[in-house]
């Protein structure tokens, strides 16, 4: 009863405040989740792993892919926040989201979502990469299907969350015309699943029973199950990475095998941070923790050195 009352109070308070142009613009920008934009840098993963940018001016095409996914993910956030507005108003932090707080009308959010969808798909055709347009369309379709149906199906919903990371990688490969290996895709898939499971674990541990009210599928999970799953997926990722590194040519092999050490350290650090319980997005743990950044920088240095040694 208290939760419903507080949600109603949030709604009433939101409606009582006028929507000024400044609040509208601020709300529209915040709904696109600018702090999540670094995820779109995954489009550079395939060219990085291949040690070349593929097409001539490949950097430009990779940036275009990042912009396409930024627009696509923004569209998804607009639609999700409209669909989840009532649940968000019952959440301790999500109630401050612009749509839930009444700063951005739902009809306006849906109109902005339509514009973002158009921009995201058109970019692929503008740069002569219809496969990028198809990948972005696949991302949008799976994301909207997730919002309507799949988010209520245990395990499958986590896999679809992880697929969003992988599709960004594939989009970058499509934009730059870089071919990706099976090992590369497997490591990326496991890494994405590792993060997705961690998101569910931190949400369940931090919010407890309230997590079920805001995300009903959480009743199918337990902290112990999610924690073990996180460890298992992380271990599989390291094993696959080492197997890939062991198969590299002689000049790169030692560098890439060595890079598995800081990669393991980064995963271990991430597991520690997610185990502490936090309402911060887990993506912030990857990009804002000093020790994590040190491990990631060390891994990147060894990885890139291995790519370019003779």
Layout of secondary structure:
Layout: H1 2-16, H2 21-31, H3 45-50, H4 58-83, H5 85-89, H6 106-126, H7 130-148, H8 156-176, H9 182-207, H10 209-214, H11 223-246, H12 250-275, H13 282-288, H14 290-308
Structure explained in plain terms:
The protein is built from 14 helices and no strands. By secondary structure, the chain is mainly alpha-helical. The protein folds into two domains: 18-151, Tetracycline Repressor, domain 2, CATH 1.10.357; 181-310. The model is unreliable at 1-16 (pLDDT under 50).
Quick overview:
This protein is mostly helical.
Spans of at least 5 consecutive residues whose pLDDT stays below 50 are 1-16
The whole-angstrom Rg is 20 Å
Quickly give the structural class: mainly alpha
Main β-sheet description: none
Strand fraction band? under 5%
CATH hierarchy class name of the largest domain: Mainly Alpha
Mean pLDDT: 87
* Strand element count: 0
Give, in order, the helices and strands: HHHHHHHHHHHHHH
Q: What's the N-to-C terminus distance?
A: 68 Å
CATH architecture of the largest domain: Orthogonal Bundle
Helix count equals: 14
């Amino acid at each position: 009863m208290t939760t419903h009352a507080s949600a109603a109070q949030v709604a009433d308070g939101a409606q009582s405040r006028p929507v000024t142009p400044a609040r509208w613009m601020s709300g529209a920008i915040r709904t696109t989740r600018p702090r999540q934009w670094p995820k779109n840098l995954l489009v550079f993963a395939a060219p990085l792993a291949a040690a070349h940018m593929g097409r001539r001016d490949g950097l430009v095409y990779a940036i275009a892919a990042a912009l396409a996914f930024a627009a696509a993910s923004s569209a998804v956030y607009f639609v999700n926040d409209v669909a989840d507005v009532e649940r968000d108003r019952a959440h301790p932090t999500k109630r401050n989201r612009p749509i839930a707080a009444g700063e951005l009308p739902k009809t306006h959010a849906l109109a902005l979502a339509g514009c973002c969808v158009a921009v995201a798909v058109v970019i692929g055709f503008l740069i002569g990469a219809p496969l990028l347009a198809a990948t972005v369309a696949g991302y949008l379709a799976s994301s909207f299907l997730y919002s309507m149906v799949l988010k209520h199906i245990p395990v499958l919903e986590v896999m679809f969350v992880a697929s969003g990371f992988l599709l960004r990688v594939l989009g970058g490969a499509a934009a730059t015309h870089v071919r990706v290996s099976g090992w590369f895709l497997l490591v990326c898939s496991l890494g994405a699943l590792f993060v997705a499971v961690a998101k569910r674990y931190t949400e369940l541990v931090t919010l407890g029973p309230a997590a079920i009210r805001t995300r009903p599928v959480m009743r199918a999970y337990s902290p112990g199950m999610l924690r073990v799953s996180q460890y298992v997926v992380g271990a599989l990722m390291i094993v696959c990475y080492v197997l890939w590194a062991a198969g590299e040519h002689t000049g790169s092999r030692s560098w890439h095998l060595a890079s598995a050490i800081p990669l393991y350290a980064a995963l271990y650090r991430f597991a520690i941070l997610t185990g502490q319980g936090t309402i911060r997005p887990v993506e912030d743990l990857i990009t804002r923790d000093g020790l994590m950044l040190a491990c990631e920088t060390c891994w990147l240095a060894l990885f890139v050195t291995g790519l370019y040694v003779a």
